[in-house]
Design brief:
Helix content is 11%, strand content 33%. It is mainly beta. The protein has a single domain, classed as SH3 type barrels (Roll). The protein has a five-stranded antiparallel sheet, with helices on one face. The radius of gyration is 12 Å and the shape is globular. The N and C termini lie far apart (28 Å).
Length: 79
């Protein structure tokens, strides 16, 4: 089990997350850890190859059902 720290963003790379507003599910593809008072920023790669970027607080961890659906369907395409 890896440790995740919301304050810095460490440990979230490769995790399945959900964009709160659009409900888009994807994998954390890139992470900029919090520095000098700025919140952590993540890039979520969606199944269609597009990206959602934003603060870590704009996203939430996927539920077990969302993770299962995401994992069962086709893998994220490589760009």
């Amino acid at each position: 089990m890896k440790t995740k720290t919301a304050a810095t963003g460490s440990g979230y790379l490769g995790e399945i997350m959900v964009h709160k507003v659009s409900r888009a599910v994807g994998v954390v593809d890139n992470l900029v850890e919090a520095q000098s008072g700025w919140p952590p920023q993540i890039t979520l790669k969606l199944k269609d190859g597009s990206f959602k970027r934003g603060k870590l607080s704009d996203f939430k961890e996927a539920s077990g059902e969302e993770k299962k659906k995401f994992s069962e369907s086709d893998q994220v395409p490589n760009s």
